[in-house]
Amino acid sequence: MKVLNNGKDKEQTNSNVEEVIECFNLPENEFIKDYDTFSIMEKKVTDYTHIMHKYPSKYIPQVPRWAIEQFSNEGDIVLDPFLGSGTTAIESMVYNRNGIGLDVNPIARLISKVKTTPINPKLLSEQYSRLLIAINNDPNLKEEVIPETPNISKWFTEESIYNLSRFKFYINQIENDDIRDFFLGTFSAIIRKCSNAEYRSQKTYISSRFRRPPANVFDMFDRRFNQYLQGMTHFYNEMLEKDSFARVVEGSADNFDLTDTLSELWGREKIDLAITSPPYVTAVEYPAVFKLEYQWLGYFADKEINEHRKNYIGTDRYYADQYKQKQKFGHKELDKQLEEIFKINNKKSYIIYKFFEGMRNNIKSVANHLKKNGKYVIVVGNNTVLNFEIPINEYLIDIAEEFGFKLEKKFSYVIKDRHLVFPRNGRGGIINKDWMIVLNKED
Q: What is the pLDDT of residues 297-311, one digit of tens each?
C-alpha cells in the first residue's frame, strides 16, 4: 500500500490534506483505522457476470467482496436489501455463500436474477443462433410488442422500432425461463443505446446540442450477447465447483419479512451478514433512468412510471400537501438541518426526512433478520443539498444504535466511475467518495 495526499507522496505535502491510501484490494479489517480513505487500484471489475447491463451508482465488486471475506464463512447467508444489479449476490455465490436480495425495481430484479443464474454457455449459443434465424426469416414488424409510448417516434427511429420489435417478439417465444430472461436482460441492455436518448445521463432525454445517431440493433445485440456470454461462461464454470445459490425477491428495503423465505430455502430464521449500498438522497431516480426499458419490457406504461417512483427510498415524488409542514425526525443535529433547509425549500427538507425515515425502517428490518454479532455493512455517500452538507454516514450510525447495533469500523474509498453523469444543478452535490460503515448487532 502507498499513502498519498491528493495524489502526492505524504512527505511532499502539508499534514492537513486528506491522506489517500492506494491499495490493490482493501486490507483486512484489523489493519483499517477509522476515517482511513482508500483508493482501490484493482481495475478488474467486470469478472463473471458483473459485466452484464449498466446500472447507475453500483459499487465495484471489491467492496462487498471485502465484507464477505471479513465477516462470513462458506455456507452463510448474505442479504442485500437494496439489491440493484446483484453485485453482492454474485460475490456471495463466487465465495460459496448464499445470497438473498430485495428490490422494488423490476429491471434490477431481472438483471440480478440473470446474473446469479448459471446457464450452460453452449445452450445460450445454440439459442442465439435459433433467435437470429427466426428474426431474419420473418421481416414483419411486430406491432403487438411495441410499447404504447407517447411520441415513440421521437425516442426511436423507424428502423430501431422495427428491429427491436422483432427481437422482443422472438425472445418472448423462448420456452426456458432462465434462458429467456438472459436474452431479455441482453435486450434491456441495448435499448438506450439504440434510442435517440442521451446514454450517460440519469434523465432520459434527447440532447439538442450533441445529438448522436442510435446504434444498430443487430450490431449492439451481437456485441452485448458475446460480452455477456463470455462473462456467463466464466461464472458458470466457477459455480460448477460451488453449492451456493442466490434468490431475488420483490420487496421494499424499508419494510420486509423474509422469515418464510429463509425457512423454505435454508431451514434458517436468521441471516449471517448484510451488505448494501442505499440510494443517495435526491441523487438517482431509477425509474427515470430506465423509462424506455420499462416500456419495452412491459413493466410499466408511460403514465404509470411516476406512480412507481414513489416506492423508492430517496425519491423526490411527493405531493405538495405532504411537505407543507415541518417534520422532526428525533435526532438533534438532523432536525436542526431539516429546519434550516425547510426555510429555503420545504420540499427538499421533506425529501431528506423521508430518506432517513426509510433508512430507519430498513435498519430495523435488517436487525430483525440478522443473527447476534452479525454485521451490517452499509456503503453510503454523503450529499450536499442546497449547500448543506448532510453527514448521512454519521446519522445512520446513530440511528442504528436504536436497534442494537454498535459501530465497529468506518472508513471510505474514492469513487472512480459513477457510470452516469448526474445533472444535479445543486440538488445532490458531487459525491467523491463512499463511506463504509461496519455495524455489529449486539442485541
A: 999 988 888 888 888
